[in-house]
Amino acid sequence: MSEIPAAPVIVADEPGTFPHGVLAERHPAILRQIAEALPYGPGQRRALDALLANCTEGTITPLPADAHDRDRWAAWGMDAHAGRSWYDVPWLWSESWFYRQLLHAVGYFAPGPWQGIDPFRPAKLAELDAPATDEELAALDDLEGRPEDERARALLHGSLWGNRADLGFRLSAEGAEETTAVPALVADDSELLWALLDGSPAGTLCLVADNAGRELVPDLLLIAHLLAHGRVARAVLHVKPHPYYVSDATTADVLDAVHRLTGAKGAARVYGQGLRAALTDGRLVLRAHPFSCAPLPYSDMPDDLRADFAAATVTVLKGDLNYRRLVGDRYWPPTTSFAGVTAYFPGPVAALRTLKSDVITGLEPGTEAALVAEEGQRWRTGGTHALVQVRT
Ligand SMILES: O=P(O)(O)OC[C@H]1O[C@](O)(CO)[C@@H](O)[C@@H]1O
Boundaries of each Damage-control phosphatase ARMT1-like metal-binding domain copy (predicted)? Predict the structure, then answer.
């Protein structure tokens, strides 16, 4: 049992707070965006309008008895939250509920022509096809010829900062400015991570992906490099079983990203070919566990997922949402021990995250003071700072 006193769970009930803004402004913006992006029919549009009213002014209404995942959601707290405002249940829970309801509205789960059609796919593909992605891939050619560890570090950096590129975040973070007075990395345990990934012996890397497109591409490049240089023998890439948090990566997004790489020129193409080969021969394995879309912290993970992580040399969790789920979506004092709050995790664990929500642990007292002096509380949510935290 952890000896750290529990901190308050984040709830979005206070106007003016970041979580409240996500429910009151970002979710409606996402609904408008997908209604514009795809030619949904009248029934789907009515369902999206009903969701807009329900998520801003209504209450949690349990899934119908015949919903394929009703039992799962019941186990995840749905019946306990029934009848309550979206603003009064844990924020982590109401955000996940939003994506479950959105997919229902567009017919994602129902047998029929729209089954399995990702409402966020147009935005994901636009990002993958953007000139900025070409520039990032071309930069790989400049890395060729550099020492292996220098390349590895550059790819880790790309994977870390790729987390800024999530499409939901960009809906409300335009114009976020970098500051120079405090370091961009608020915690950096990357040497501990490299010690775990030194290839002696070469074990298994679990990487819990976050966003598709310009985050997933550098994640895949990092995996390809670690496999190609014997730093790991095998990689397990956890993706989402269905579209989630706008741009979260699914299996289809992995295939699109690998296709993008194999269709590129120069070094990018070689990375793509390596990834294809690794998928084909089983050195790179995909998982799409239902718990990856659960509205709960990882401390509640089921036994099969626990066993997967326990077998890894290290599990790397990407992104802000995974961080919230790893440490618990709570208002922790920022100097709370990261090792303490992740003590339950069944093996070495690393978080690679840009800061896009209030949750933070593991800061040195001086770091927190410098951040607050420079920016007030803006550093927590602006996406301009990042961290690499490791518990061995
Ligand atoms: O893509 P990421 O890094 O997981 O970030 C998703 C983020 O979106 C938000 O939930 C807001 O919708 C963040 O606070 C959050 O954690």
Answer: 23-368
Q: How far apart are CA 221 and CA 367, in angstroms?
A: 31
Asked if residue 283 is part of any domain, the answer here is yes
Question: Do 111 and 178 belong together in one domain?
Answer: no
The token pair that represents 318 in the structure block? 């990407």
Interstrand relation of 386-391 and 349-354 (parallel, antiparallel or unpaired)? antiparallel
| ipTM topping 0.90 | yes
For residue 308, report the distance from its CA to the centre of ligand 1, in Å.
Answer: 24
d(C-alpha 392, C-alpha 340), whole Å: 12
Which protein residues touch ligand 1 with a CB less than 6 Å away?
22, 26, 95, 163, 166, 168-169, 210-211, 245, 319-321, 324, 356-357
In a domain, 9, yes or no: no
CA distance 253 to 128: 10
What predicted TM-score, i.e. pTM, was given to this entire model?
0.95
Same domain, 96 and 214: no
Query: Which residues of the chain fall below pLDDT 50?
Result: 1, 171-179
